[in-house]
Design brief:
Elements lengths: L2 H11 L4 H20 L5 H94 L1
Length: 137
């Protein structure tokens, strides 16, 4: 049986490679720990070595966490600035269109007032004409 082919076929079917990565990292950690434990050194040297490596890994993890926090903060700031710019741009466009609508409303009101005034004058003139026609008849 071709185990290599079976393993590759199984891995190709999986889209999530996380379990493989975790298994690889766990194997590396176990191998390193066993290597240190069986190293030809005294117990205190081995404990100091394990302690130093643990501190190094902790410091490295803290540095990476800090780095990721900074990247995340910078990305959030960038997104906030972009959103603020879009908000201001759209706000300006809306204000511009609102001003245009207000001007259109004012012109429409003035036109209606003018037409109403003209109609009132014309009606008044017609009323005077009818009144004169009635008086003359």
């Amino acid at each position: 049986m071709d185990y290599k082919k079976l393993i590759n076929d199984h891995l190709d079917r999986q889209t999530d490679k996380t379990p493989v990565a975790v298994a690889l990292l766990a194997g590396l950690a176990i191998g390193a720990a066993l290597g240190i434990l069986f190293a030809p050194g005294s117990g205190s040297e081995t404990r100091n070595l394990i302690s130093d490596k643990t501190k190094d890994l902790t410091d490295s993890a803290k540095d990476k966490l800090h780095s990721y926090k900074e990247k995340l903060k910078n990305s959030a700031d960038h997104l906030a600035d972009a959103a603020k710019d879009k908000y201001q741009t759209y706000g300006q466009k809306i204000q511009h269109h609102a001003d245009g609508l207000a001007d259109l409303k004012d012109r429409t009101v003035e036109t209606v007032k003018s037409k109403f005034s003209d109609a009132k004058e014309e009606l008044s003139d017609k009323a005077h004409e009818i009144k004169k026609d009635i008086e003359n008849a």
